[in-house]
Amino acid sequence: MSSTARFSTATVPGAEQRPHSDVRHGVERVDEYAWLRADNWQEMFKDPSKLDPAIRAHLEAENAYQAALMADTATLRETLFGEMKGRIKEDDSSVPMKDGPFAYGTSYRTGGQHPRFFRVPREGGAETILIDGDAEAEGKAYFRIGGVDHAGDHERLVWGFDDKGSEFYTLKVRDLQTGEDLADLIADTGGEGQWDATDNGFFYTRLDDNHRPSQVFHHRIGTDTAQDRLVYEETDPGFFMSVGGTRLNDWIMISISDHETSEYRLLPAARPDAEPVLVKAREAGIQYDLEEGGDVFFVLTNSGGAKDFRIMTAPVSDPREANWTELVPHEPGRLILSVIGFRDYLVRLERKDGLPRIVVRHRATGEEHVVAFEEEAYSLGLAGSYEYGTDIIRFSYSSMTTPAQVYDYDMRTRERVLLKTQEVPSGHNSDAYVTRRLLAPSADGELVPVSLLYRKDTPLDGSAPCLLYGYGSYGIAIPASFNTNCLSLVDRGFVYAIAHVRGGKDKGYGWYEDGKRDRKQNTFTDFIAAARHLVAEKLTSHDRIVAQGGSAGGMLMGAVANMAPEAFAGIIAEVPFVDVLNTMLDATLPLTPPEWPEWGNPIESAADYRTIAAYSPYDNVSAQAYPPILAVAGLTDPRVTYWEPAKWVARLRARKTDDNPVLFRINMDAGHAGASGRFSRLEEIAYGYAFALKVVGKA
């Protein structure tokens, strides 16, 4: 049966063509769907009712169309949702983390959509709910809690929330004795506050009209927010900015960075009126991160040609680069991801031979040891600690077959204590599944790691369907972690695969560099190579592979759809960054200037323009056959604006030569992350899985 025959018929939404010409570097492009971009997007993100009625009517027609074509999967979607919900411990709770007289954690109530933040006495006792996410979300179509930071005296906390999906967060201050919020309320922030050492004020970032964190302010409790002190203003729109603190509560750190350059400014946490002091001025291509160490800062940096990073120390009395001293030298192929400093130890998370590991270093002796694991592919997370003078760190471990485990690890005795194992209420037998890692030869001979999960009874003769996931941007490595949701596909005979393509740091920093800017095509050819290798190994067939990716991974989906449509039975593109060239040419959009180091600046550079134009999915839609495609978006998404997939879908329908459906599902009450509630999010995942099952004939 053809893919087309598996879908019912409905009236395809007609997107009016209004040609708009743009000439750059002597090249003219015509965008017939440019009108779908809301000219008042800044206003609309804060108030979605301001959306142009003609655009809204088109988006609602798209939703009606996809609902009609997927109507016959309603029962399947309910079943999938029930399965995925059944694997979640509804009244789950994190292991509280100790800080002074208390331990802090998060929990959910049975049936609850949103997290609750609580604390208990340090050595155990009655639980006090500090923020109840379900209560705060009541009556709101969208609600997401941002940062939650308790003061050093444990009497107040500052917390943020977004009720539009646009990631303009409002900050509030809660009195932990009364449980009431104070009058202090600050809108249009980055979502987090950082207390000063007096516990009478906090630092925060404010977003400008273009959704960029351009200013750091300090607010004193009980004062008019209009009088908040401007601590620092970043005038370069190409840099992100955040503000944080240290566990010793001695420094406030202002971090400024793009994807390849960074800069820090410091001020004493006990002197919130002090002016921030520059550590090392930004230098193109040089990255560094600061971590506390008592009388020194630990500096994780790629300076001095350390592509995979090295660790330096700098005296707190004068941490300028001239005073940096090397502590852990650069080792090619060993990528140091992060460091955490303690009174007696320095802990680093690194990736070597494609797998993460934790290394503990005794500060006085320099002796190091590795916290080791045995599985072929796994995920490792370093949670650290609220406290500086402790010997205990916390980490999490999982694999594609092993549910997440949380450990406390004593760095002195090297004893690990299992605190929690992820519960799967409906049951999970790890022995029924196989996890493997393959190496797929790419077009230029590089070997692309592919992580696999399937049931032991899955036939490996090419007949099994496959969901192949990929991302491949910003240096983000996709972990081979436990995912209860994908079991709904695996238990139906799917092979679940993750292609660790170039553009991530899965094989070191060089793996990232080989998948960005003028080498971006490697990301796409790696993914196609992974699909073909899976077929060559008889794990699946091309007419059984459904490709999936989101955001920059959605761009990957658009690119491979253009380059090798015959390799896939279907494509799921979630919040897909598919209009790359137009977005990188629009300097007003929130992420465009900070993204130029990742993609190139086509405004200034003709070479960058040509590079992006050669792969931008929207610009390369052609008159050829495409597999069925599902695009998913959120109306108030500031990262990948809704009009990117809206335009892409319209152009696909106008140019392709087949009858396969192209569906566009847009959440009119959410942004980049989709629905905010944990169960609402499962419904969205169930929809995508139902589409995958449908296109391979298993719905």
Automatic annotation (TrEMBL):
**Which InterPro entries does this entry report, sorted A to Z?**
AB_hydrolase_fold (IPR029058), Pept_S9_AS (IPR002471), Pept_S9A_N (IPR023302), Peptidase_S9_cat (IPR001375), Peptidase_S9A (IPR002470), Serine_Peptidase_S9A (IPR051543)
Domain annotation Peptidase S9 prolyl oligopeptidase catalytic: ranges: 481-698
A Pfam family (short name) is Peptidase_S9_N
Region feature (Disordered): 1-24
Every Peptidase S9A N-terminal domain range: 16-421
Is Hydrolase found in the keyword set?
yes
Superkingdom to which the source organism belongs: Bacteria
State the UniProt keywords alphabetically: Hydrolase, Protease, Serine protease
Signal peptide (from-to): none
Q: Which family does it belong to?
A: Belongs to the peptidase S9A family.
Q: Would you tell me the protein name for this molecule?
A: S9 family peptidase
Species for this entry: Neoaquamicrobium sediminum
What broad taxonomic lineage does this protein's source fall under? Bacteria, Pseudomonadati, Pseudomonadota, Alphaproteobacteria, Hyphomicrobiales
